[in-house]
Amino acid sequence: MKNGFLILTAAGIIAATGCGHTSDEIRVPSAEKIYNEAVSRWKGHKIFGLIPYHDNERAIELFQEVLDKFPNTKYAFLSEIGIADVNFGREEYDEAQTRYRNFYTLRPANELAAYAFFRSGMCFEKLASSYDRDLTPIKNAMYEYKSLLGKYPASEYASEAKERLKEISEILAKSEFYVGKFYYRRKNYQSALNRFKNILSDYPDYSGREKVLYYLYLTYINLGEKQEAIKYSEILLNNYPDSKYRKKFAEIQSVSNNTDSTKP
Fold this sequence. Notes:
Blueprint: H1 10-18, H2 31-43, E1 45-47, E2 51-53, H3 56-69, H4 74-89, H5 93-106, H6 113-127, H7 136-151, H8 158-185, H9 189-202, H10 209-222, H11 226-239, H12 246-261
Antiparallel strand pairs: 1-2
């Protein structure tokens, strides 16, 4: 029979044996057939053409059946990823990440390893909250994407991983700036200074670089290091000639000069 194996019901088996066929001739579903059924259950269909329905539980059972019956085969590897993908789709990101990690750890040479790295990074991104909260998941995502680029630079996921890294760098820089302003407002200028300088060195493409330079200027002014302050004001104006901070520099400089002129 073409296009797959024949699946017989109990009645079919009786009929087959009654017609002279032996039990050896009764074929069981192939790994490909079970896997395709799992994918079909996972992708689902629309009831009445309108309501989406996905039988995720059955999909996982079928993927697991492939793993149990056909280990170390192409479809077993696809099924490992399939279960992780189902977990991801159900927003079970911790479970999905664990499965992706196990895959690329145990099968680094497999053609699906790069995909597992990429999806692991996506899991961590989904687990991350806003930039002013715990950034451990987003840092883990950065590690996964960098690992992907280091191990599989020619992967079809490399380009997207680079884009994700840009987004993550923006988030981390924004967080660093948030903390720097927190210290600045509490007049802990040295801690603020460290944060602002870290942004310039670690996140050179940060979209808020102009305001970081401005706060570096303010921080040095408050630390009494006028020459360093002037240096950063010049860097800012050279890079952003139409900066909205130009007027503020002039105002601060005017106040500073007036204060100096009243000193004995």
